[in-house]
């Protein structure tokens, strides 16, 4: 942890939307009089039918429920598009930068309105109606935003699946929510490599019966198979559709989207967000956290397959009438200047990225950054995982030239938008700290027994009251929602994150305290990787833990016990790595596979993950008590054969 502190620059405190005093006043109002605070904030949206009730929430078992603005009606797409037409129809809504520099695309709000309306009509023509689920499996191309907004326009619920997931993972997500229709592209492109999206969809659909239509965007022009009666070219479907599609009035609590995310147990959960509260939260946090001003060019570098892309590439940015940059590619293609060249090309004012990308670029040296101007940048943001102070300092000094505050935003798929962050005009910065809670967020740190810890302390992070952007349920399993988040510490939302609060009241997220690991800012459930491994015919048992990784933040360390008579060979190791990539997707590629004749277990047969974590972390002076193990000698073998990563 770093002791450095960077005061709020004078220009920022003088001109920012929220300065220190205003933060205090608004925080207090949201905490003490949420009705008044949120009634005002919700006016940032256009309501078809105004709400009369603001907040109706309880985290307690007896009357558990989360509702915001519950009798109001609105349409999310109309809020992101139509209401801007009067003033900014010809301003650019989306700037699209392709994988390789070349034919970029600028889409005005007027064009966005037409694209989305046509697609909405094409969805209807293909049998999609209010409440139906649509799976979106696309690269980072504008059609991803069109697709999300077209669903929102007609009240269909979208489920975006990241293009890096395998056919199996995609199929599981389609099946879980019974999607009627899939929107995909022939292929994706990342760093010059082709991703066989349509072929993956074909594979996934072999085992899912619910999908009757697949809309296919022609993107690379690569050769693909089209199935008669099921597959439809996107361009043909929208050419045949009318550009006039009224926006469906939706209740504030009607679902907007499902987004699957990994937890500590079981298969990924379909996190459900609804319309009114989510959009108020997305719009408010986008404005205050990034000090967003009309005319700003805003670039969130996350993929729309993750929640960050949902809330800040699409919904928050467009609700605020911003120009949002969508980048198809990766930071190192064609070279390591790519990000900063894009910043210069479009005169980006606000850049929001992930620590894993910054660490990878930092390693390549400052020259790649310094040969670009970056004078347009006013503010930098970080999200997805804890940012280590070295990467923070590099971001601040080299990328931002000490001119741009960094907002280190802590939040989760479940929270809908930013929960803790410094506000650039209000909060002195501490490298690596997510600083202070957003309006309406009441954090609490508890110990393992749930005892509330005050003052400077260290423990597990809970949130004690609801905020509008909170997830409402797990799709199809409301009981799992309650069990997962509200029973560890009854009456509180448990985040799964560890957290320290310092003497100044700053919060420092220390990482997951459950069996979730964060690889390059992507959440992976260790249980998912374990079940992929044991699905291999030669594997008897597997245990997966996180390990420190210099670029990815955390890497995946898998202990594998083979079936009797199987030989632990290099070839099998490679085969298992490929196997996991195939089962889940490249983001789950194990960094280490250690063959272990046995795993350390208690006498009751429980795997002692604590020991496995220590070995993976190379913290072996500190294994703790191993006397309760059924067979303590297992540990000697593990230690002898552990794999150290460079
Ligand atoms: C938005 C997003 C959520 C988990 C979260 C935490 C980690 C996210 C962070 C951070 C420290 C930050 N995390 N932002 N940790 N500082 N600024 O990433 O959602 O994919 O659901 O991941 O990511 O561990 O619990 P999601």
UniProtKB/TrEMBL annotation:
Example of a GO biological process term: acetyl-CoA biosynthetic process from acetate
PANTHER family given in the database record: ACETYL-COENZYME A SYNTHETASE, ACETYL-COENZYME A SYNTHETASE 1
Organism in which the protein naturally occurs: Sphingobium jiangsuense
GO CC list: cytosol
UniProt name for this protein: Acetyl-coenzyme A synthetase
Catalytic reaction(s) noted: acetate + ATP + CoA = acetyl-CoA + AMP + diphosphate
SUPFAM superfamilies, A to Z: Acetyl-CoA synthetase-like (SSF56801)
Residues reported in the UniProt entry to bind ATP: 384-386, 408-413, 497, 512, 523
